[in-house]
């Protein structure tokens, strides 16, 4: 307990973040000695003791970066939080993690895709990480919670772990705590500011082995998460969308630049049968040729193409998006032409 008080005395002091905290501990040799500089501040001491008491009453754990429960991937990030607050199941912190993020203004189709993808990861015992915002984040958490068994999801918050935002997701918040965990580096009771969400996005990327970006325009906060993923050398995937939709500009740009792999579904991650994968790739190649062979200078509709190559319209739409990103086809007058 004394060790926790010492660390919180430093961290909760004005102007001290993870980087400054680390420098002080290194300078004085330990958190205990460094904390001597702050013990005289009675208001600070009272605030720390109140926070610890609130944590005890609300089932919140303080996880220090020297704890066995601290996520290894996050610990390896430079400037990581020395302490994270965790509300929920601690064992969720020890499992493989994938982050799924995207716009708050997601389409129904995009959210359904994300729900299905998150459910697949959860079924394979991979914890789904997101930010509990409405739209894509909600779909990711819901998908993970829908999977059978002891599936888990983690919500990383910009405010304190007890600060539920947005309020529309209050029921989701309690479901996440029951099956997974809500975490934050901020003090209990802290009301977030805009800048806190940028740092929150860095921790989402830092926690995860893979980051999957769904719908997001170029200025979306989720693109910040993608940039953090690139900087942290994480495996980045993006779900393509139609070029005419601004919400597809983020993932499409990452795929086009080569910074992200194209995510077409759960089979990108869980098809472990090499023979089947080779067959699948061969079939995709043949279907791609079939699509291109069916196109010329006269626009052909998606419904006609579906009949020609014997696929559903949803599959045709997906394949056409990929071909359009590659500059092989173009939408024109309600149909598609070959370039």
CATH class of the largest domain: Alpha Beta
- The CATH topology of the largest domain is given as Rossmann fold
Give the integer mean of the pLDDT values.
91
Number of domains: 3
Quickly give the structural class.
alpha/beta
Can you describe this structure?
The protein is of the alpha/beta class and 339 residues long. It is 48% helix and 14% strand. It has three domains: 2-58, no CATH class; 90-268, Rossmann fold; 273-338, Arc Repressor Mutant, subunit A. The chain is built from 15 helices and eleven strands. The strands form two sheets. The protein has a nine-stranded mixed β-sheet with strand order 1-2-6-5-4-3-7-8-9, sandwiched between helices. A two-stranded antiparallel sheet has the order 10-11. α6 (108-123) packs parallel to α7, α7 (136-146) crosses α8 (170-179) and α9 (194-207) crosses α10 (221-231). It is elongated. The model is unreliable at 273-286 (pLDDT under 50).
Short synopsis of the structure:
The protein has 339 residues and is α/β, with parallel strands linked by helices. It has helices at residues 2-11, 18-28, 31-35, 42-58, 72-75, 108-123, 136-146, 170-179, 194-207, 221-231, 249-257, 267-270, 274-293, 302-309, 313-325, and strands spanning 60-64, 83-88, 97-101, 127-130, 153-156, 181-184, 210-213, 235-238, 261-262, 329-332, 335-338.
